[in-house]
Amino acid sequence: MFYEPKKGHGLPHNPFNSIVSPRPIGWISTRSKDGQDNLAPYSFFNATAYVPPQVMFASTGRKPDQGDTKDTVQNIRDTGVFCVNIVSHALMNAMNASSETLPREVDEFAHAGLDKAACDVINCARVAAAPAALECEMTQIIPQRGENNFLIMGEVIGIHMQDDCIVDGLFDVTKFTPLTRLGYKNYSTIDHVFELKRPDEA
């Protein structure tokens, strides 16, 4: 099968997200300029560089009360910072609860029954139970083709890791089984890893 997206795929559901999978979930926490905390998951998320460490996520769509975007992006525009909380399998239901479209004055932490912890170097809350969290300084917000599509780039300036996830000096993802996004309404968890060295590695 071959199709051109602009001409449609002819299938019951769009296969694009299922092809580009699994994807890590960036559970993005922000704080508005007037102090309102916000939390929302984004499955267009990944790391982009080692030195300095950098990440990206993309926001698609808009809320009627935020003009051309959503609460997360507007908060980052106003404050210049955000935190990426890593989603474990245990936090699946809370993550899903925080994905609900809510009025901007509603705190998704409370809505999802989550405890907050303070970030160390940015003015933002983070998910206390997250196995890891990345405190980020926004570097760019890039409009993408299409309506209300924005790419948010950030430098990671603070990193939190749960101590029980560090084994023999390595951050062991099998200790918390990361939740990943597939296509349609599907998710998966990572509970098995293996090592594969490059041919030019000793």
What does this structure look like?
- This protein is mainly beta and 202 residues long.
- It has one domain: Pnp Oxidase, Chain A, CATH 2.30.110.10.
- The chain contains four helices and 14 strands.
- The chain is globular and about 50 Å long.
- The mean pLDDT is 95.
CATH class: Mainly Beta
Order of helices and strands: HEEEEEHEHHEEEEEEEE
Span between termini: 41 Å
Q: pLDDT below 50 for ≥5 consecutive residues: which ranges?
A: none
Going by CATH, the homologous superfamily would be: Electron Transport, Fmn-binding Protein, Chain A
Provide the β-strand percentage band. 35-45%
What spatial order of strands do you see in the largest sheet?
3-2-6-9-10-5-4
- Average pLDDT reading: 95
Tell me the number of structural domains.
1
Class inferred from helices and paired strands = mainly beta
Number of strands: 14
Percent of residues in helices comes to 10-25%
Main sheet: strands, sense, barrel: 7 strands, antiparallel
Number of helices: 4
CATH T-level topology:
Pnp Oxidase, Chain A
CATH architecture: Roll
Sum up the overall morphology in one term: globular
User: What Rg is obtained from the alpha carbons, in whole angstroms?
Assistant: 18 Å
